[in-house]
Amino acid sequence: MNNLDYGVIGNCRTAALISKRGSLDWLCFPDFDSPSIFAKILDENIGGCFSIEPEGEYNCSQKYLQGTNILCTTFECSSGAFEVMDFMPRYKTGDESVDYYLPAEIYRYIRVLRGKPVFKVNYSPALNYGRHKASHTVGVNYIRTSPEGDERESLYLYSSLNLETILDGKSIALTGEEFFLISYNQKLVDVDIRRVYLEYSRTKVYWLNWVNRSKKFRKYEDEVERSMLILKLMSFQPTGAVLAALTTSIPETIGEVRNWDYRFCWLRDGSMSIETLLSMGHRGAARRFINFVKSIIRSKGDTFQIMYGIRGERELTEYTLDHLAGYENSKPVRVGNAAYNQKQNDSLGYLMDVIYKYYLYFPGTLDEIEDMWEVVKNIVRTVYEEWRSPDQGIWEIRNSMSHFVFSKVMCWVALDRAVKIAELTGKYNYADNWAREAGVIRKDIFDNGWKECLGSFSQTYSNLELDSSLLLMEEYGFIEASDPKYMSTVKAIRDNLLHNGLMYRYKAEDDFGKPTSAFTICTFWLIRALYVTGEREQATELFNEILKYSNHLGLFSEDLDFNSKRQLGNFPQAYSHLALINTVELLSEEKIRSRFIRP
Questions:
Q1: Which residues contact 585 (CB under 8 A, 6 or more apart)?
Q2: Cα gap 312→240, rounded to integer Å
Q3: E strand or H helix at 266, and its extent?
Q4: What local confidence, expressed as pLDDT, does residue 303 receive?
Q5: What span, in angstroms and rounded, lies between the C-alpha atoms of 115 and 300?
Q6: Radius of gyration (C-alpha) of the chain in whole angstroms
Q7: CB of 232 closer than 8 Å to CB of 285
Q8: What is residue 398's predicted lDDT score, i.e. its pLDDT?
Q9: For residue 511, what pLDDT band results from cuts at 50, 70 and 90?
């Protein structure tokens, strides 16, 4: 059973997935959202990979170097043993925040452990999502790979091993330290084993220093550390955007069509990332995301989207790659995401929550603060205009709109945070007016969203379905944990949506049928809800159980199969790792306050 047994390496520009057996099966160059050059994860035959295969029977084990994003795969075979250290260079080059070295490169640094192991190399790039046949040219010290008839989009492989032997897939006897370097650009410096060791050492020290600045916990420290390192990998250094996941089209259920491209920045995910980064001691990363938000709101008249490209792009046109078989033959494979133009009123709450944190932690110069104040007023105007209208909700229902209760709650959040911003800036007349409208929204939710027959708030005003997103009503400050209606809602959602220790998002049929897999973050939401309503023992039991369902390196995807517990959905998922960290803080009683309370 394939359980997304992949490790991830990256440098905050792009990232790669490397299988448990050391095969590089996913890489987009030069950036996260660029076309892939290795995509075996999406097509076993034509996707392309870069594998190292010892002769005869062999065993593999895999781990991260403690406190780093350097992945070590150890190969044991009859002729000996060796390890491959995979990493992308990342380190500071100066004192300024922009002074980082993060080239589009992967090093595969090989060291003999014993004997004289023999292996072959399968170096099979498949450029532009496997649409172009690759042509190899052997230069003086590199293999250049280009689309046939077009050398403009070339890829370079450098190695201390014989280049013809690599291309021919012949046997190689390993006697010492060797390396491969995959580079998007031709190198202007000589690359030898000393250079490789220097890049390895610089990158290792960078990650160790970064981890050392993170808050520590007495329990679950290893899980938090790995989650923090993965989250860091998923930020795009040039702009500060945070990706939802590193892949596209890993299905929520095998053989079905819920396959999406997640290599974009959702405001929903980003809002949670800000709080997590701040609480863990990484103000710099939080500030970069705030700057990203400022950059995508260019004028006070701009409209707002739920998601953006990692450079702030607004158009994320979706299309399918029909030549690819898909992950375990689950089609379609999609590039782009049509949800970018959906109406999701909840996104206004996340955006205002981010802006509130800007005013609390990173206020700029007077002109910048005034610019942001105009944005605040624009969001408020949008809430006034939209909150009474149906939308497509947090789960991005594609072909219908409803009055989703959680969307209404997040509209209230938008006004609640706007009130707090107005109070911070001394605009008390605005605060009073906005507080009154927030009260109107709140009353509307209680009048239309609470269903006495369920003993719970419902998914929409017009149905009697339950929805895991309603568990967040307390965390965002809409309702107290001790409120009988919230406690009853938590119980109803647990009894209805918890199955085999994992949570459904909802059970209602949507435009793709009924969901059949567990959405990982929803289980973390239930853990919090149980904890704050006094069910601490059950919350801790659920948390300890879900930790068992990570892969061999402690990584989580978006979804889990209810029965087999195999991982599904795009991988790794920022939302899942953010929730893991937040849950550890909660269980450690480090952060029981709702997120709306000013520190």
A1: 217, 279, 591
A2: 10
A3: strand 265-266
A4: 79
A5: 67
A6: 25
A7: yes
A8: 73
A9: low
